Amino acid sequence: GVKANEKINVYLFRRNGCGFCESALAFFKELGEDSEYKEYFNLVEKEVSSSKKNSSAMESVAKELNVNLEGVPFIVIGKENFEGYTSSWNDSIKETIKKAYLNSDGSYQDIVRKYFDDSEKEKDNGAAVTIIILLVAVAGIGFLVYMAKEDSTIDVEEVK
Length: 160
Prior knowledge:
Elements: E1 8-14, H1 19-31, E2 41-47, H2 52-64, E3 74-77, E4 80-83, H3 90-102, H4 113-159
Parallel strand pairs: 1-2
Antiparallel strand pairs: 1-3, 3-4
């Protein structure tokens, strides 16, 4: 979970040239300069039109949150999300950020992060798989050599 007073991540999935995305971005940038709120969150922007990874992460997050995503911006704060953006949501977005930061009920969970940490996991996993394959190969060769020796011993005995 999140440690007390640790900044939370606010994810903004956006597309270049999307007006609502620009407005949302401007709101978060402004909020990030607010003396109170800048202590609460980090804005993590993910541009989805130029990145397959970002767009598939966005789809996975939407699925996990049971959101039938129509487009961007898609704002995710813990398990709360805002689909689209309008300035009339500012207060409710601020409330969501503050609640997630204070996390008094322990419900805040960064569900997006794992979709971006995966690249690290895959690398580790790949190394483990490679090692296992090597071990199996070495063991297999050892076994074949051992069997070959056994066979030759048997052959010798049969000749006698």
